[in-house]
Amino acid sequence: MTRTLRIFAWASFVLNVLIIATGGAVRLTDSGLGCSDWPVCVPGSLIPTPELGVHGIIEFANRTISGPLLLAAAGVLILVWRHRRERRDLFVLAVLVFVLVIVQALVGAFVVWQELAAALVGFHYTVSVVIVCIAAAFLARMYEPGGTRELAVPKPYSVLTHITSAVLAATVLVGVFTTASGPHSGDEDVIRTGVDASVLAHVHAWPGYALLALTLVLVIAAWRLKLPTLRWSIALLAIELVQVGVGLYQARTGLPPLAVGVHMVLASLTAATMTIVVLRLKRPVPAEVASAEGSPVEASAR
Prior knowledge:
Order of helices and strands: HHHHEHHHHEH
Structural class: mainly alpha
Radius of gyration: 21 Å
Number of domains: 2
Shape: flat
Largest sheet: 2 strands, antiparallel
Number of helices: 9
Distance between the termini: 20 Å
Strand order of the largest sheet: 1-2
Helix content: over 70%
Number of strands: 2
């Protein structure tokens, strides 16, 4: 893969994480309706007017990132187009990121039009996490040869890793519901779901602690068996420990906005790291081996 493709791919990943951070800033500063319309900021003006104050600037800044983000996704897709036959895995991942970025922009429009409906805001964040995971998968596969892949770990370890990823997904989803019921609605006049957020916070902690325990088992097993997932499973455990610390801090200090924002960004990075761990369960089969076994080198992405 070319250096230009690597630059665009990394830019795509970083910008997708960054827009989660800026989207969190919009929500946590009550700037969700800083721009009351879409795609313009207010009727008759693409950019925020002085009357909108700092809320308009914050919301518009978040929207502005969508432009470079879409360009980065489009750049990756264009650059990988010429390799679409031999690297079908990268092509599919690039298409998914590009399409989801467009979908995400449209969801953002409905979030504004529906005045920050909790379900839409939660869905908006969830889509962003999915995009970050796919962009991370692209980065991981970009540095590997294409072709057939084979299991590089014992089958029980693979099963446990997939169980852990499912628990992580549950943790993130419960966290989305918890935030949807919390005080940070994005605008001081918006009513949330009405569910007791303190109860959901405890429910959110259960899969979180299960995730931490499962990840610890993965790290120990990878270390004992010298598996290729060791480095990334350690990284996953480290991020989870920080995430648990931030979660406990925000729960005990009344959900300060900065801590909530950090928690949101860390959740996306945790999911991205888990994605890499799952990908490391398999390794590329050398071309000569695949050819000898009659396996088409192009049939990758398994």
